[in-house]
Amino acid sequence: MSTGRRVAFIALAVALFLLLAGSSSPGSLVHAQSQAPAHAGLQPFTILSPDFHDGGPLPLSSEGNVGGCTGRDRAPSFFWTNVPAQTSSFALLMNDVDAPISGGFHHWITYNIPATARTLHGNAPFTQGTNSANVQTYVGPCPPATGERHHYIFTLYALTIANIPQAGLTFDGVLQAISGKVVGATTIVGTFFRVPANTGMNAG
Questions:
Q1: pTM strictly above 0.85
Q2: Mean pLDDT, each 10-residue run in order, the chain (204 residues)
Q3: Total domain count for the chain?
Q4: Does any domain span residue 12?
Q5: 20 lies in a domain?
Q6: Does residue 32 fall inside a structural domain?
Q7: Is 122 a domain residue?
Q8: Measured between alpha carbons, how far is residue 158 from residues 46, 101, 126 in Å?
Q9: How deeply is 2 buried, as exposed, middle or buried, from its count of CB atoms within 10 A (0-12, 13-18, 19+)?
C-alpha cells in the first residue's frame, strides 16, 4: 500500500473516532481522505497480520458465508509491537469503509483485550460487540458481486482502562466508551472483492 493511501486510511479511522467521540465535526471525515491525522496525542504503534499484508487481499477463509458468499467467517490473526507504556487494554474494530452505509459496515468489534496481549488469533475469546449484522462475533467480508474492491480497516486502540463493563456494545458505543481513554492507535487494511457470476474470475 502506498504511504499516501495508508495515511488517508489512518486519518479516516482517527477522524471517525474523533467525530463519534464528540471532538470533531462531520467535515473531518471528508478532509481525512487527503490529510494526515491532526490528533497528535495518539501514540503510533504497529499492527501486522500473518494472513495478509497491509493493503493486500484478505484470505478467502475470512470471507462471510451468507448472502451468496461461501467463506468460513474465520477472522484473521494479528500481532502488534511498540505498545504505548500507559496501555491497560486494547480494543479492535473492523470497518468496511466502502460499504454503501453511513459510517461503513462494522464487521467486528472486540474489546477488553488484556494489556499483556500481543497477538489475536481468529475469533478470540474477548468481549464481543454487536456488529452491523446485529451479531456478536466476527462477520467476514461479503461485498456485492460487482467487482468493486472494498477496503476493510482494522483499527487497534491502546486504552488507559483495563475493562469496559458493558458487553455487546456497537461500534459507536465502543468509541464513546473509550473517548478520552485512548493513548495509541494503529491500523492495517485488507481488501476483498467479488466478481459478477459467470466471469471466470476469482474474488480476493
A1: no
A2: 50 50 37 34 90 96 89 95 96 95 94 97 89 95 93 96 96 95 95 79 56
A3: 1
A4: no
A5: no
A6: no
A7: yes
A8: 11, 27, 15
A9: exposed
